[in-house]
Amino acid sequence: MTDRREAPFAFEGLDRVLHEKARLGILTSLADYREGLSFGELRDLCGLTDGNLSRHVQILEEAGLIEVTKGFEGRRPHTNCKLTPEGRQRFDDYLAVLEQVLLRARGDAVSGSARPKEGKPA
Amino acid sequence: MTDRREAPFAFEGLDRVLHEKARLGILTSLADYREGLSFGELRDLCGLTDGNLSRHVQILEEAGLIEVTKGFEGRRPHTNCKLTPEGRQRFDDYLAVLEQVLLRARGDAVSGSARPKEGKPA
User: Fold this and answer.
1) What is the percent of chain B with per-residue pLDDT over 70, rounded to a whole number?
2) Cβ contacts (< 8 Å) between B28 and chain A: which residues?
3) Measured on CA atoms in the order A84, A89, A92, A96, is the torsion positive or negative?
4) What interface predicted TM-score (ipTM) does this complex get?
């Protein structure tokens, strides 16, 4: 068995619930709009179909990351989605790991002029 | 239909081949070791099982992102994996999008003391 504690590139903190591309878009949108966003606004901001957005919203709600409130605006049904406090915290934690990924990868991945490494991992 | 060109949180550049957590670990490792890494080194750095690593290496190879060379070290079979030039370029492009995600999310997601937004998207 591999000992995951010693695997520097395992990126354990990249929780798959948050890391999935569409859900990452939803969470980033909601982080930006603290009072929440309607279903339609989220759909347009994230470029998702109604069906896809529904599916991902349900996953995020079941994970306790977002709160979904159904009501009416006048006679029209209105669904509002917002981050829960736990969701905000977990998203912050996720972003911290993402930043570590970037820092590691940019060690010499991005500059193009980086020195080649000769060494191998111990 | 949603017009994806106007969806600022669609993150089209987060190519799923690169974005998947295990593959992101593999690519980050290989970006760090320009001469490539053996199968066993990659497995340990990324905290993957042999089976999982094989599967992800195959996906990355088929996508043209990495090059896999099989040979021998003495009598022992030795598999070396390294980024292709295209793989390095696409990983760089991916990292640039990841950085945009972080910048957007950190608009007020991480500081904790950020102002609440009242506005809604247009």
Assistant:
1) 84
2) 9, 11, 101, 104-105, 109
3) negative
4) 0.78
